[in-house]
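Pilot study result, target chain (528 residues):
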Amino acid sequence: MTTLSTAYTAATYGADGYEVTVECSARRGLPSFEIVGLPDAAIRESENRIFTGSESSGFPIPSAAISINLAPADKRKEGTAIELAVLVAIYRCCGFIHVNTEDMCFIGEISFSGEVRPVRGALGMTIAAIQSGRVEIFVPRENLREASVACREGVSIYGVDSIRSLVEHLAGRAPIKPAETNPYAALADRPSSLDFSQVKGQYRAKRAMEVAAAGGHNVLLIGPPGSGKSMLAKRLPTILPRMSYEEALDTTKIWSCAGMLSEEIPFVLERPFRSPHHSLSTAALVGGGKIPMPGEISLSHNGVLFLDEFPEFAKDALESLRQPIEDKVVTITRAAGRVTYPSSFMMVCAMNPCKCGYYGSRTGKCTCKPADIKAYLAKISGPMLDRIDIQVEMPELSFNELTDMRPAESSSAIRERVEAARDLSRERFRAAGISDWSSRSNALMETDELRQFCALDEEGVRVMEDVFTRTNLSARAYDRILRVARTLADLEAVTRGPWEEDGMPGGRVKKRHLMEAAQMRAMDRKYW
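Predicted structure:
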């Protein structure tokens, strides 16, 4: 006689999850265990964990010929998160569990001792289960805070620490308390010890960082050692707009997939700031591995990717950034499959003007030969420079600047202007009927939007013609100057007005905006 049962779980594909149906068949006969449906090696090894864990919990699986099918059968399943659902399906066949589990989803790995261990990607899997109509989600207790972020009205999420506690809960003997319905509201931003007021001097660089934050533009900082490049970059997240719930959810899913969440940090509330070492590989930067995992560019999604010592990165690694910078996603193809991760980040690069770091310094300490300087700068390709909107030279600080005790402008004051400028740009996108207006920034404007929002008058056309001719701009660099000019106009509208001009929120792009934007791209002509 054959007994059939079904349980539901989830798996991850990239940063997102998808539902997996576990079908179990238990027949009289010689004891055996077979699992089909494109399982990976970790899933094929789950037999020992499931049988030993159930025995340690006091609910041993009876001798039978057990077959497990994972649906959809044509999609490869990876990881150990399905083990708890496999055990539930077997227990239903054996009669240990009598309740209807149709509206339930079970996520977790089983240990030999019968404990339920945490898994990576719990948030994405929980969201997938809820979207599939499951209203009771069981996850490892260590993943509870992370998974509970997806909780909504009518859905209960439970933290399970062992097989026994799950069986007792389903039997009604020892109910488990569900997670809070809206834990996001209880979470708060952690206070930061970093602030723009701590940066001495460098007013042009601070202005450039404010413009970059307001428009989501990429930045290159060039200057000698000790001029404050890293200090400024680390404080950029403190002036960026606060993340919306949707942005935080997207970023947290990626971090969950990479296994970077913890009990202390169950949800990414602050914009990520990633600063990888220049020795990292291409796969570590863009993502990869036998089972494609997110790289640094995806971990910095909705935040900042800081590349210090820019020319010291491997050329292959730098060139691999070109496509993600444009498309805001990265697709990794391996034999195991193709995975797409979001990678909408602000890139901030910092570099010395030469190998010794003092080329052009007023101290005259540079010891590099012209050929050495040229070879050092040549590590950065023209196409890569084209993708950087703003380039800023940061000279050495004078003694008076270092000892100036007057308070500088705080990050909170700058952030107010940045958020107001972002509101203006979003209002423009919304009024134009752009579907994703809420997540847009000026740096992401397409060609048609550039024509509409950055239309130039006769004076503006003459300015851009002069800039284009004298500096031999590429078409991409030309567009990027227009995008920065649009942000400059927004910041001016925030501080001086007009809020709207000729039906255009933020006003029109003027000659002064174009000239300042062009000056912010002058360094590639000086050094390259």
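One observation from the pilot: Residues 324 and 330 are 5 Å apart (CA to CA). A full batch analysis is planned for the follow-on phase.
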